[in-house]
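Section 4.2 – Deliverable D4.2 (structural model, holo form)

The reporting period included a commitment to supply a predicted holo structure for the target in complex with adenosine-5'-diphosphate. Inputs used:
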Amino acid sequence: MKTKGWLIYEEEHAKKNKAFIDWFLDEAKELHIKLDFILQDRISFGVQNNELVILLDEAPLIETPDFVIMRNIDPLFNEQLERMKIPCFNSHHVSAICNDKAKTHQYLAGKGIPMLDTYFTTADELLTGNLPLPFPFVIKTRTGRGGGDVFMVENTEQLEAIHDQLSNRFIILQPLARSLGKDLRVYVLGEEIVGAVLRSNQKSFKANYTLGGQAETYVLNEAELTVVNKIIQQFEFGLVGIDFLFDEDGSLLFNEIEDVVGCRTLCLTSDINIVKRYLEFILQKLATGEKSI
Ligand SMILES: Nc1ncnc2c1ncn2[C@@H]1O[C@H](COP(=O)(O)OP(=O)(O)O)[C@@H](O)[C@H]1O
Ligand SMILES: [Mg+2]
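Output (structure tokens):
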């Protein structure tokens, strides 16, 4: 019997990633996987008659998928799948931690992974005068992506403006890393490092590629491999991007982990078939029953 999987996206994200989705569907065919592309808004889930339930187009599932590739951020749904014994990539644990910058820093602290001091607060707290670090510093919302919710603050006027913009959002505060406009993304599949991309932007302190940055391939040295592997050991990853800033001596400072990682820069800088490798990885996990639920 063919392995059956779901590839789940939210509508806006799916429009922007049509080529990537088609790539998944093509590679799945090659690997004899029946992969269905499903928009999250066709799905309802919860409890019915005291049992966990997933509805597709308002009807209970006749057949559950053998696995789900979750390319939408909704850790509660990842958890529902896992509780219903449907392996989900990435796992609920990865999704719940990594889509929250405060939780990620909290989880990885004390594990020998260099990172900036990071304070967890709310935008409203900013104006109480209780600031745990001096200007200049960086404010980010806990759940922001793509650099849109990341701000550098140099004085009280800027702080007030950002407070107004963020109203009562949950945020983190960090000092400024020395290497502005430059960061490193390391692509990881399971326990394996598949590639690394140095991203830079001359015009902004934010190196996000989607904000108009540059990307080039990067080879990790021994010390960098050690740091990345320490992070890998703390999770059971499917496919993620682990992002780093650089300290003044050029060493890595952990920044964040992308659960629903975009692969554009990896594709631009290498000929790695990341989609094929991801599907093969999933098949292997299912075959060995290794995927812990
Ligand atoms: N503390 C910091 N110091 C200097 N630059 C930073 C700092 N935090 C983030 N940046 C820059 O801003 C970019 C976006 O921040 P990031 O934490 O990755 O948020 P997002 O999830 O929106 O990508 C990073 O890629 C990096 O270039
Ligand atoms: Mg980022």
